[in-house]
Amino acid sequence: MKQQPPAPRREGSRKRARAETTLSSTIADRIIDMLGDGPRTPAGWRQAMGALAKESGPGVYPALLFVLTQLDFDDQAALEHWHSVLRQWQDLNRRVPEKVDLRVAVLQYFLRGQRKLHNPAIVEIKILRRTQASAIYDELTRLYNYRYFQDRVTSEARRAMRYDQPLTLLMADADDFKAFNDAHGHLAGNMALRRLAAVLRKSVREVDVAARYGGEEFAILLPNTPKLAALKLAEKLRQAVERASVGKQGTRRGKPLTVSVGVASLPGDASNAQELVARADRALYVAKSVGKNCVKAFSDERREHARLDATVSGFYSALASERHPFATTNVSEGGILFQSAERLPNGALLKLQLALPPAGEPIECAVKVLRVIGARGGFEIGTQIIHMSRPHARRFRQFLRQLKAGAIAAA
Predict the structure, then answer these.
(1) What per-residue string of b and e applies to 303-333 under the rule 16 or more CB within 10 Å gives b?
(2) What is the dihedral of CA 285, 291, 294, 298, to 10 degrees?
(3) pTM of the entire structure?
(4) Helix H segments across 57-145?
(5) What is the pLDDT of residues 345-377, one digit of tens each?
(6) Is the pLDDT of residue 38 over 80?
(7) E-strand spans in 240-279?
(8) Which of 52, 250, 336, 365 could form a disulfide with 388 if both were Cys (CB 3.0 to 4.6 A apart)?
(9) What does the pLDDT read at residue 307?
């Protein structure tokens, strides 16, 4: 006797938890789009689901069956059912004059071929899209909600680490929002939050993920974006909110809302999604504590690095069209001290290009100017490294180890 594929798990609480996770996941979102505008044949669906599984893992098959039937399977059982559905769908298309779609094939399979499975629910795509929208969007601001953000930051962090790409998170908070609410009322507060969300949405790219993290706090996830570029975007966002005069309500009374922003990047500041959120939140706390309406990058001030005397030549640029030569005085894992003929303002963000001895192998990093001291023939610039790609960071650390061991000359 042919062995039947396993039946679904029926525990109520587990099914409800899985339902919430599945419907809020990016995989379910992709599947719903495919159901509306995707392939129409068994071969097309086999290819599309195979590509999605290769990208996101075997969890795509339980997600597909849950979206279509509200039945919950583990990965292996879902894959077995999926292959059976495809075979039966091909057979149906050979036997009936009118070609059937995927939902009809799934209904046929679970009602007739798998009679032990009770009450499968085949949902209309329009209803499914509305359900999906309510599951991932915040009702007030129409940004993504907290649950969706948690799914995305986890998946984006894994993807960034797998492909060695930068990922940056902005945590933004409306300054003095409680005082604004107390002065103008909750209705005015909700309207201000909605307008603030609209400004944030217009200030980021289509590929970015802007979410309401909770209350008056927002999270903006920037895939494939290094820290220096994210800091510039964060400042642009802060200025956009300031110009929008959110909350003035067409009158001169009261102060408009501003935002404070904390910035953290992976892999430079964190190694996983949880650390990324925690460190962006810590940077936000610093921004709030130093006066608000500003942008602060995460830095672990408790970490100390031994500085090593070294003369390394290179170029720095404050603007894309400018390049200025410099030579280092000393270097560490946390910062670079260099001599420059140009005076630079405290807090300036620079891109440094270093030619590391002995072969002059070039690396790049983003730094923040912490102090500027007049010196003979120019200025001594003390900087903190805020971002360096993983390959360049490995080469830099190797250079420091060789310098410390005396394997290469300091000058």
Answers:
(1) eeeebbebebebbbebeeeeeeebebbbbbb
(2) -30
(3) 0.50
(4) 60-69, 75-95, 102-108, 125-136
(5) 877 888 888 888 877 778 888 888 888 887 667
(6) no
(7) 259-266
(8) 365
(9) 53
